Amino acid sequence: MPKTLAVLNIEDSEGDSDLMARLLKKAGYKVTFERVETADQMRAALKKRAWDVIISDHSLPQFDSYSALKLLREEGLDIPFIVVSGAIGEEAVVEMMKAGAHDFLIKDNLTRLIPAVERELEYARVRRERKQADNALSASEIRFRALIENSLDDISLLTADGTLIWESPSVVRNLDYPPNEFVGRNMFDLMHPDDLKPIQSLFAELIQKPASRQSGTFRLRRSDGAWRWVEAIATNMLNEPSVQAIVINYRDVTERKQ
Fold it and tell me: Cβ–Cβ contacts within 10 Å for residue 32, how many?
């Protein structure tokens, strides 16, 4: 089956446009080809359909490649943009590439047209996939943040020695300390002296076994000095590259304990 290819051609020469269309068809593409000569025509064509590649003459009587690239940016579109023109100075080529052109070809020698189109189509595919992955990651982070910020449970991330490196907003709400009050400090400083030794023993056992879990019940000191009973589950994720911490999930069970 022939590969489909939608080409928007910015060109005032019908003969040059027909030549490029023939070369693409000869390379095995089923080509949808539209030629435009002005900014208004280009803008209308961009709204009409999705284009796989734009092939543009550098300078037309009413238009040029710089203006076309500017219009493309204004529309927020990422489409491979290849300039095909006659003799042109090296400085102008550099300026075009800085403006956003992906490649430049000489009209009198179009042997590079097909390789250039295929390379830029592949680069565009990679950019789309990277953008999709970034968008998916961003959406995942937003969902995670919404879950964390609205959770009834408290979550803290600790280093192997018990130093706090991150805490969920619910910790501030439940223990009534200012945000990040204890970041950089050892969380055992908040623990009731009578509970300290057995919990430290469990913690020492936990850090020796990657991915292991320990649970326990102990008291933490609120900002007003009151002791609150919490029920906790600790998971060793020190070896998980995206976490690298001991993850503590805990909730206040004072009323239940009483």
Answer: 14
Contact present, 20 and 55 (Cβ < 8 Å):
yes
Q: How many CB atoms lie within 10 A of CB 158?
A: 22
Q: Are 65 and 58 in contact (CB under 8 A)?
A: yes
* CA Rg value for the chain: 31
Phi first, then psi, for residue 172 (nearest 5°) are -60, -40
Give the type of residue at 142.
Answer: I
| pTM (predicted TM-score) | 0.61
Distance CA 126, CA 128 (A): 5
Decide the pairing of beta strands 154-158 and 164-167.
antiparallel
Tokens of 190: 């908040």
Residue 78 backbone phi and psi in degrees, to 5 = -110, 90
Q: How far apart are CA 96 and CA 90, in angstroms?
A: 10
pLDDT in tens, 84-127: 987 777 787 888 888 889 998 988 889 999 999 999 999 999 99
Backbone φ/ψ region at 176: left (φ over 0), alpha (ψ -120 to 50), beta: left
Beta-carbon count within 10 A of 145 CB = 12
Region for residue 109 given its phi and psi (left: phi exceeds 0; alpha: psi -120 to 50; beta: otherwise): beta
